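= Paired protein data =
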Amino acid sequence: MSRKRGDIAEDEAVAFLLQNGFRVVERNFTCRFGEIDIVAEKDGTLHFVEVKSGSGFEPVYNITKAKLSKLYRSIDRYLQKRGVQMPYQLDAMIIKKSSVELLENITL
């Protein structure tokens, strides 16, 4: 996917989160382990949101065991670097042509 399409999908994800009571804390946190697309907060919980989009296939299948491992290492680095000590979870935002779906607290 091109960076431009990825940015558009992330903008859609942010709009969805804001409409659903989240506060966006940060976008595109990058460290040596990878990137966290969106960091948002709602009801005292920090949500690390991985955005996946596409057409002609199910974008959720791009969230692999290897990707999750990188995300969890990136989350650990984010928490250390920002000095954050609060409940958190990893979520996925799946964006297809006509739908946006938030999958909360994903694991393998």
User: Anything to note?
Assistant: The two ends are 24 Å apart (CA to CA). The helical segments are 3-19, 65-82.
